[in-house]
Amino acid sequence: MKADYKKQIVKELENIPEEDLSKIYEFIHWLKFKIVKSQKKETKLNHKEDPLKEVIGCCEGPGDLADKHDFYLYGKKE
């Protein structure tokens, strides 16, 4: 059985007070943005020719460089 989500959503919306519909509308737009953004990010990650691939491992540094980069760059303590 194929779920008809559109009809189910509309049915749920019928029971929501009018003053709350704007919040749901904003949430739907936020959700659509997150889904589109996620799909674009996934597409970018699937590219075979990653320009940073060539520089991975090209330099040496302390083992905790990723975690403490502010300290190494700016001398900031945690």
Structural features:
78 residues; mainly alpha; 3 helices; 0% strand; elongated
What's the quick description here?
The protein has 78 residues and is an all-alpha fold.
The major sheet is characterized as:
none
Query: What is the element string, with H for helices and E for strands?
Result: HHH
Principal-axis shape:
elongated
Q: Beta-strand percentage?
A: under 5%
User: What is the first-to-last residue Cα distance?
Assistant: 55 Å
- Arithmetic mean pLDDT: 79
Give a description of the structure:
By secondary structure, this protein is an all-alpha fold. It has helices at 5-14, 21-45, 69-74. The termini are far apart.
Write the layout of secondary structure elements.
Elements: H1 5-14, H2 21-45, H3 69-74
